Amino acid sequence: MAKANVANYSVQVKNLEKIYRSGDIKVRALEKVSFSLGEGDFAAIVGPSGSGKSTLMNILGTIDKPTAGEVYIDGVPTAKMNGNQLANFRNKKLGFVFQAYNLIVGLTAEANVELPLMMTSMSPHERRKKADSILSTLGLSDRLMLKPTQLSGGQQQRVAIARALVNDPTLILADEPTGNLDTHSGDEVIKLLREISRKRKVTIIMVTHNPDITKYCDMVIHIRDGRVEKMEKKGVVK
Ligand SMILES: Nc1ncnc2c1ncn2[C@@H]1O[C@H](COP(=O)(O)OP(=O)(O)O)[C@@H](O)[C@H]1O
Ligand SMILES: [Mg+2]
């Protein structure tokens, strides 16, 4: 697909609107949402319950479609793509991190991280090498053969981050990645995400309810009633 002229932005959101209809009732979940993020930006989305955070994340993740507006990821407009194109695009360009880790319980850490590579042409040997290398980078080289239940929450989330990274995505979407973790492990995970965004030039967008951890972000997108209320640029702490 032809790339639009969106130099330097890895993610561009333009006039996004989402209206949910059930019967006669219309809910405007997003209205004129626009923002742009560069390569390696680490952004947080914050806002009260019902403000549209999940709706926005689902559209960014190409899991839901907007009623109007467009999302460009790496210059590619995603809103009008069809099912097959989307699955392909998602697997190549996006990584997902969830609050509850969502690892496959019967599989080792290594096998969990290899999963996204199953859809590529990589050989089993190459897949394993890539998975091991990322897990090692994240400090899990001695945990490769353990299953999720044998890992702490913080370790499980690091495996999930490795899985999100293994395809070298443009964008990682993290929904409350520290929601199930104690303060210390949560802090470690956020610092890790920040480091990843810097070193690998991956754009990361995270939903959080914890204002404390937004200090590690470059940008905080405040949303309220489906609109961007404020884009807050942060001086990132060391
Ligand atoms: N599938 C749906 N059908 C109808 N309304 C929905 C649906 N999903 C979300 N909404 C409504 O859209 C608004 C935004 O919801 P959501 O994006 O889940 O907010 P948040 O994640 O910030 O709590 C809310 O008013 C919610 O009730
Ligand atoms: Mg939500």
Task: Give a written overview of the molecule.
The protein has 238 residues and is an alpha/beta fold. The chain has one domain: Rossmann fold (3-Layer(aba) Sandwich), CATH 3.40.50. Helix content is 29%, strand content 29%. The protein contains six helices and ten strands. The strands form two sheets. It has a six-stranded mixed sheet with strand order 6-7-8-3-9-10. The protein has a four-stranded antiparallel sheet with strand order 2-1-4-5, covered by helices on one side.
Short summary:
With 238 residues, the protein is of the alpha/beta class. It has six helices and ten strands, in the order βββαββαβαααβαβββ.
In DSSP terms, counting alpha (H) and pi (I) runs of 4 or more, how many helices?
Answer: 6
In whole angstroms, the N-to-C terminal distance is 40 Å
- Reported by name, the CATH topology is Rossmann fold
Write down the overall mean pLDDT: 94
Integer count of domains: 1
Biggest sheet overview: 6 strands, mixed
